[in-house]
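Q: I'm writing up a methods section and want to include an example of the input and output format. Could you take the sequence below and give the corresponding predicted structure tokens, formatted cleanly so I can copy it straight into the document?
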Amino acid sequence: MTKTILRALAGETLPTPPIWMMRQAGRYLPEYKATRAQAGDFLSLCYNPDLAAEVTLQPIRRYGFDAAILFADILLLPQALGADLWFVTGEGPRLSTITTPSELDALKPLSAIDETLSPIYETVRILAQELPAETTLIGFAGAPWTVATYMIAGQGTPDQGPAHALKAENRAVFQALIDRITEGTIHYLSRQIAAGAEVVKIFDSWAGSLQGDDFHDFAIAPTARIVAALKAKHPDTPIIAFPRGAGERYTGLHAQTGADCIALDDGVTAEWAAAHVQTAGCVQGNLKSSHMVTGGADLVGETKRICAAFANGPHIFNLGHGITPDADPKNVALMIETIRNG
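A: Here is the clean output for your methods example:
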């Protein structure tokens, strides 16, 4: 029997939605913390295929999710393109910045990125062999706009201000960087698929900060370009797009991006999304991740409400954003029990 997530992505309405969770391999699990300590640091964990596969498998063993998502990071592609990347404990990633023509020109050619990314493809190959037969393997990358915001600012920012400023002040450099990331993402995801990823997801975490025509030009258009290129090479591989913060602009995104599924954040209600987004195809989402911290009757009630709202169309149950480090693993089990057993 075809895997449940692949059935949902193909447009089938299932009596029980398949489940996985963004950042399901992560700091809320004690077994993850132990493996990360063994690796030494976050990037060493990402680039160690055996350990990266292990942390990808941990939530599958513990919970029996319907999909595993490759353990990696959206900033590995900028590093492969030649940006310096390091992580500051308690503060997050730092990168060397790309804001001038000379810095852009100094990036590596597309042909060189696999020198850095080959361990990631090896992790995918290991997972394709070791995952249970019923579990779907999801690969991923960051969307060009979101990746560009980090490359321009050198770190995460609350409003993506440096990227907006470069877009306004030197649109040629900004557009060239978006194009370079887009080309790299097509190559990176294609290699993940060739290594064994059955689905890929494009994370545009900061799409919501793009306004007016910029939302089309820098959130929709690059994603559509990636989807079209991947579909040309891998026509049978479903693609999930996640333009977080899109709000009412989620409407029509199946057609505009070409993605098989639109992942929803918790800024829209399931009832609204069922009426305005799910009518065009599979949707994924969208329980607030805070419920994984607080649990209880609210978690159960919200989980049931979301399942009911999306019951008449193809749906993959997920959070509206990644699970947070302070989440209680018991609440994840409660969510799954609620979905599968009512």
